What does this fold into?
Amino acid sequence: MGLFTLDAMATAAAAASPSPAGPSASPDARAHALLARMTEAEKFQLIRSAFGEPDAAHGLAKPAGALGSAGYVAGIPRLGIPAQQLSDAGLGVANPINVRPGDGATSLPAGLATAASWDPQVAYAGGAMIGDEAWRKGFNVLLAGGMDLEREPRNGRNFEYAGEDPLLAGTMVGAAVRGIQDQHVLATVKHYALNDQETARNTIDARIDEKAMRESDLLAFELAIERGKPGAVMCSYNKVNGDWACENRFLLEQVLKHDWAYPGYVMSDWGAVHSAAKAANAGLDQESAAEAFDKEVYFGKPLEQAVARGEVSQARLDDMALRILRSMFAVGLMDHPPQPGPIDQQAHLAVAQHALEAGAVLLRNQEALLPLASELKSIAVIGGHVDKGVMAGGGSSMVTPYGGNAVPGLKPATWPGPVTFDPSAPLAAVQALASGAKVGFASGDDVAAAAALAAQAQVAVVFVTQWAAESFDAADLKLPGNQDALVDAVARANPHTVVVLETNSPVAMPWLDRVGAVLQAWYPGSAGGPAIANLLFGKVDPSGRLPITWPRALDQLPRPQLPGATAGMAAATSVDYGIEGADVGYRWFQRTHREPLFPFGFGLSYTRFAHGEPAVEVRDGRPRARVTVRNTGKRAGADVVQIYVQVPGSPVRRLAGFGKVALAPGQAREVSIELEPRLLADFDTVTRRWVIHAGRYAVYAGRSATELSAPHYVQLSERRL
Ligand code: BGC
It folds into this structure.
């Protein structure tokens, strides 16, 4: 083939390609070249999405071309720019108001379950599963990557997030984002920032000083963004230190785009925009579903006028469009458009099942009540709609299960409902593993009948549920309805009682001392039934460790009273995160000498592990800890080594690294863990740099935040990161 022919082919390819810079050029070069060919109107088209669902309240039909989901931006065919089809997908691809009739999806267990696995590969696999499902359904932008820190156990969205620790949350969410984007589907980390409660979320002002914020919530975002390279970041509803998050120059321009050099775009939450020029100049790049949610379509006429008047520069408008295009190129939306096609549901169920098997947390196991023996003759299985399925959380992240809601008709039936159960029944799964046993079932509605059933069985397994959803928080830590009375009655009837929790986050367990075992199964997801049964019968060793601190009572929290709770969602109010500052969760408990019910990092196993003393070496200023873990029990299992560091002069120990290791009985392995330098550092707000101060650092290998090895001291010299 002669040179001439090759050139001709290249020219033809460039014409057909959406990028005049050619497919091998960098995403930046391709985005710049494309932007140069865009008209002003086309740029404005790119910087706002439409609501992707019909909206009767505002007289809006589903936009032509939209698949039906949270958002839609029409493509620009003359330039080869594809439409942006945006879907919620924190746990699986959502189908709000059944807008795509009957279109189900696989749901992972709660984000907290994935975080509790302490295994980034589990998070990656979950992200890849969702990304694949989205791509095959035709979506190319996912509102997936939830990671507001758990400062509040009552927060109705905890199940969407990854817990209270910046390193764990940032690592796990970063891995999930990579999983999604490796399928050429753009992911969005959210909600930036400090959207840590739902009560009054549209008005509340989160108050916290810069150092504390940089070392906690913002650090979690920084790590997730660095590791996951998400195409978009979603700014949140609330205010941060007096300014709405979506027009907060400090958050968007200073921290995200300048200090972290983030090249992607900032998309607003649905109804989180309050201005045109201020928001654009502060760093907002795309307004979401404005017609349906904002007071005005700010990035329509008002922004056009602001640009015409020079209040927003042409350069800023260009940058907004450029960032969107750049992310589309970087993730592969231009080169690998979705190919609608069949989904491998069995493979995806296996991913969801593994996530729960790795992330369920065994909280209590008296006299080795668990694992259940397969030779049991009789088991009573009680409560939690176990004959039908497992509980899921509500709101925008809710997934319509394949096969439909297993327990239809529960209230609320409309948003943030319908209350949904994934059709993966624990009862059938228990029956399958205990084929020789008589497995009885009681719904739990009649407490006396349930207790009578329990009294006749060798073992009773009671399931309790707590529905939570976006848009509201729990009033307290109590299990709803008669469930405490149910567990109490069953435990009194049968000393061999196991409780399985399907809850948003911590709940009070007034009956704890009277039950033999407790397994936290979070919201278990599409394969919850078999995963729970495998854990109960020891087909799989429970290896989840709490990604949150489990308080004994609300009075142990920085804010026993939920801010805004008495005034309701609409009230303007503020929340003082300065109380605990950067010391979220376990660090608050340490600092104030409080003893939680279960500490961060805690979780039991069916086998036993022995940890050697940590050895720490520092190379080029970077400490690495090595710990030998031996499985001294009789079963295969996996353990998590948690490295905590006490910075000189600090009263608290911070998680600075972790590693999970699977071991056969008798097997030993050395786990080598690089410590994250920012967890050894302080954030200096004057120089805007992380500083590791010279001094003696105590390094501990932990099984939890409170069960630690003897300290190993290392001397570090001053270093700016
Ligand atoms: C939620 C976001 C979600 C968006 C679109 C908002 O109510 O806060 O997490 O992505 O709706 O559904």
